Amino acid sequence: MAIINWATAKYEGLGKDGKGHVSTQSGALKDQPYGFNTRFEDQAGTNPEEQIAAAHASCFTMALSFGLAKLGFSKGSLASKVEITLVKEGDGFSITKSEIKLDAKVPGMNGADFEKAAVEAKLNCPISKLLNCDTTLDITSFEGN
């Protein structure tokens, strides 16, 4: 089984003066502005790194949710924040890190089992597998037993 999702990007003008718009198949993003100013100057709009962070956060959190359900847990909450690090390298840029910060409440679960499930989700969610950078996991809070 293959699931194919898509997004489109348009860019009018070139370089710093250019303006782009990105849309997704679902409509979650529809002609969302992006460009140099939204990427490097905190202007309103989105940027590729923010979109990667959203994809990684949602993918990891869902993978962990399913992993915990497979272990027999049915109640709890997970909140992930992903920080993507973009660094200047020569004339270009590279993404060097995706840092997952996780807050979780899983009643009845012990910390060691939770950490094992979280690490497994980090290693095996499809977006983690896609990224060729250092992917870290920081469980900032956990409530269980």
Account of the protein in words:
This protein has 145 residues and is α+β, with helices and mostly antiparallel strands. It contains 4 helices and 6 strands; from the N terminus they run E-E-E-H-H-E-E-H-H-E. The chain has helices at residues 36-40, 48-70, 111-124, 126-130; strands at residues 7-12, 19-24, 32-34, 77-89, 92-105, 134-143. The strands form 2 sheets. The protein has a 3-stranded antiparallel β-sheet with strand order 1-2-3. Strands 4-5-6 form a 3-stranded mixed β-sheet, with helices on one face. Strand 4 and strand 5 form a beta hairpin. The chain is elongated. The mean pLDDT is 94. It comes from Rheinheimera baltica. InterPro entries: KH_dom-like_a/b, OsmC/Ohr_fam, OsmC/Ohrsf, OsmC_Ohr_Peroxiredoxin, Peroxiredoxin_OsmC. This is OsmC family protein.
Brief digest:
This protein has 145 residues and is α+β, with helices and mostly antiparallel strands. The protein is built from four helices and six strands, in the order βββααββααβ. The radius of gyration is 18 Å and the shape is elongated.
How is the largest sheet built, in terms of strand order?
1-2-3
How far is the N terminus from the C terminus?
A: 39 Å
Give the DSSP E fraction (strand runs of 2 or more residues).
35-45%
Q: What is the total tally of β strands?
A: 6
Organism: Rheinheimera baltica
Protein name: OsmC family protein
InterPro entries: KH_dom-like_a/b, OsmC/Ohr_fam, OsmC/Ohrsf, OsmC_Ohr_Peroxiredoxin, Peroxiredoxin_OsmC
